[in-house]
């Protein structure tokens, strides 16, 4: 039953007993799986993938972007899992043998590191090269989508406050057969108003019904079938959604599969799942009524579906304003026109891609009476509520403006996405009123709203004669208010993002990759020579210890800086957070690594201080592993502690005996120590420590040896 409800319903699915049963079973299975991974399999970090899937469900369907702290909390929690995953694999844990003896800790530390690096790279690269729209983007990002166009859809809801940003402009449809006519292309309509939120579908769309769209469609108000129909061909290009936009009142729609339905009440073509649609041909009645016809055509409310009349909890100030505007008008058309005329520049309204700062607890009253700044969703939402408050049936339509002529067709893009109002009349059906004041050539004013209808034919349209000065497009990416304008007064330039952070990140990343390859090649050459028990061949600068000992550190530093610049290209705060986190976690490790490599360089160069450097480094290695050696211990006593606590194997013990002999000779003998044997012997000791006493993540990130003072 739950599967069938999910198959035929529209999200969000109602919480019926079958759905609740399915969710309970799923969450129970998640709990069992997490417990199995964390306890039975002794791999707590692996639970991160399962929990990520659960976390992704509410994150994906949330109407608003999640707070920034949810991201940081999740990242910190997973970092804790990684730390636990490393700590619990020690040979000695809470004074008893821990699971995973042998080489498990050392073999698992590398995959954990790879996973951690992959997470960091995925966050930065994923945010940099993918276009994710307005939902899901990290806060502080500029909002311009990058990457492929992918699919575009519109959500069945309007908002009363916020920022309009659809990212990169993408062509969605090619329309053939409209000629020079400028018409609004309707995708769907909204019938239910929620205070302080906006307009949506009744019961979240679950009650929506329809007939097969590829069969002859039932007649609806506004088309008696007597007039000529216009044949229009629409070719979707980057459109993926539940809805298919149509013009006017459709009579037939050809080219669609059987799963596409037509809702004559809502005036929408829809299906139950988002999908790409084929090209389709609509035969539509698009004749516009005259002003006189509408004045004599008030709707009989008893015949109107109740969802188009009801409106609850409207702020009394908004209702009073609507009544004031319409109290002297004799019919519904003149009342609707009076409210439509209210949203103009003369009354202080301004089209903008961002609403004004909130000054009132009621978003609708704040927009209508105070802020008077917003985009099409606010204008359409406000007018529809005001119409219903004075008893006029209305709804909000979501779709597209007329598009841009290109050759023999109209190109409709994501920048053309739009919202307007439709008012119901008894015989003419739903009639469009667009209250949004646009000046970029996309406004559509039908003949019944024009001030001088005699100058145009019945089906011609013209632009709004009086609209506020604004250089923003109808919807989509905001234009630069200071951009140069052409002869028509419309802006033709957009803000250009600086590319130098991305270019510099690429250069540094390339250099880091080259140094990484050099370091790996050098390591492999030395390993092969060691396996053959032969001296390493001369590879020029690759054998220069002063250079190659520092290659890994230099490469890591370049990677960090490259990722920081790449993050800055996405979001300045993300770059700052990345630098702070990496700096906080990496500074102790970097200091420790620098000290280690300075000592190893002394050992490799057979310096007079080589023996002392080797012993200090051995003490620090043990301190980082939880075995601090006292400066009061003799060399031999300290050596016994290392062998016992860290369980050195035979190779490690042999190397340690050599190191102890060289150190004692250096400190207490007048004869020079055999410094030629020191380097290989010390390498054997370090390798044995790695094999038998692998270092924890805590020891790597926060070395205890930094608390010691070299004497």
TrEMBL record:
InterPro entries: Bact_TGase-like, Papain-like_cys_pep_sf, TgpA_N, Transglutaminase-like
Region (Disordered): 444-495
Compositional bias (Polar residues): 451-464
Name of a matching Pfam family: TgpA_N
Alphabetical UniProt keywords: Membrane, Transmembrane, Transmembrane helix
Source taxon at top rank: Bacteria
Plastid among keywords: no
Domain Transglutaminase-like: 368-437
Biased composition regions of type Low complexity, renumbered to the chain: 465-474
Membrane-crossing segments per the record: 15-34, 41-61, 67-84, 105-129, 499-521, 547-566, 572-591
Stated name of the protein: Transglutaminase
Originating organism: Amycolatopsis alba DSM 44262
Taxonomy of the source species: Bacteria, Bacillati, Actinomycetota, Actinomycetes, Pseudonocardiales
